[in-house]
Design brief:
Distance between the termini: 46 Å
Structural class: alpha/beta
Number of domains: 2
CATH architecture of the largest domain: 3-Layer(aba) Sandwich
Largest sheet: 8 strands, mixed
Helix content: 25-40%
Shape: globular
Order of helices and strands: EEEHEEEHEHEHHHHEEHHHEHEH
Number of strands: 12
Strand content: 15-25%
């Protein structure tokens, strides 16, 4: 019997990649308002036959809400996790020219949306000014933006649309599956539902205490409530203190001025203002399930109708499934990204 004692966690073997960890002590995240750790662990898939003389594509993976880059590497009962699935796909397709980075951008409230927010922190700057330059320093990444893709599903898809349309000189390709969008249909109904519960459960201070104690997620409506709280921290007009909600619980009315501020962050609104940036992209991959539980199919269709009039290659698909089938669609955009 052969055996080996390793110095760190090693739960499974990959055929095509080695797993490395890029630890960033982020200056951008120091003194962030939520007091989340500024030390971040970004897991990296590096080809086993990595060659310094070869130029590599780069894929930046953004996670969905309440998930994180490191979570993708955990064991999944009865199915392969993200790295295992990607590894098998690359092995079968004989793709070995890609570095894959899984971004660590988790926050106390479950997610950063990968943007700069005065109530959450400068997560966009952290990715653009710290993670990416270090990746380029450590690995021989292609100098062409078309070989660099930012991707994700759900909130990760939102982040991909935001970062790609803001930084087309860095990301030449954007791949978003069921991205958060069309807030009027996807987010506003959740706000209506969550605000009475936030009041009933004692407000943000009490909910924060329950999160710290581990008791919060015992509540049946916990995900809806924490989603609304997190989005308020990311999107509201507040510059410090508590976030602002765009709905008057007392009067049952939409607060128009605040809602307009939230909508500035909605992809179906910001893509209209970033047309010149978007037309610099090499391509956009957009996919959504026909029966998405958060009504994201409607926003995706609106995005398609906007983007099809831009001078950018758009690959749009709808699959016969829902929001929780996102992971099954990843091989589609892997083929799209690696297809030269």
């Amino acid at each position: 019997m052969n055996h080996e004692l390793l110095n760190n966690t090693y739960a499974y073997a990959l055929k095509q990649f080695d797993i490395q960890t890029l630890v960033i002590d982020s200056d951008e995240l120091k003194k962030n308002p939520l007091k989340d750790s500024h030390q971040r662990f970004n897991l990296v898939l590096k080809p086993k036959n990595y060659n310094d003389k070869k130029s590599y594509n780069l894929m930046i993976v953004l996670s969905g809400f309440t998930s994180n880059g490191t979570k993708y590497f955990g064991h999944k009962p009865f199915e392969k996790n993200y790295p295992q699935t990607l590894d098998e796909w690359c092995f079968e397709k004989k793709v070995d020219d890609c570095i894959v980075v899984f971004i660590d951008a988790f926050t106390f409230w479950g997610g950063s949306q990968f943007i700069n927010s005065p109530l959450v922190g400068n997560y966009e700057n952290y990715i653009i000014k710290e993670v990416l330059p270090k990746i380029h320093e450590l690995f021989n990444i292609s100098k062409h933006a078309k070989d660099i893709c930012v991707t994700g599903g759900s909130s990760g898809g939102y982040g991909a649309l935001h970062l790609g349309s803001n930084h087309p000189h860095i990301f030449g390709k954007v791949a978003a599956i069921a991205p958060d969008c069309d807030f009027a249909l996807s987010l506003l109904p959740e706000i209506y539902h969550a605000l009475p519960l936030i009041e009933k459960w004692g407000g943000l201070k009490k909910i924060k205490e329950e999160l710290k104690s581990g008791a919060f997620f015992r509540r049946r409506e916990s995900h809806t409530v924490i989603n609304v709280i997190a989005m308020a921290h990311c999107y509201s007009s507040a510059k410090s203190g508590q976030p602002k909600f765009p709905f008057s619980l007392k009067m049952g009315e939409l607060i128009t001025k605040e809602w307009k501020h939230w909508l500035k962050h909605d992809p179906i609104h910001f893509v209209k203002k970033r047309k010149k940036n978007i037309e610099q992209l090499s391509g956009i991959y957009l996919e959504v399930g026909k029966y998405d539980q958060f009504n994201l199919q409607y926003g995706a269709r609106k995005l398609k109708n906007i983007l099809k009039n831009y001078k950018v290659k758009l690959n749009y698909k709808e699959f016969n499934g829902n929001h929780f089938d996102i992971s099954k669609q990843r091989p589609n955009f892997w083929s799209w990204f690696t297809n030269k």
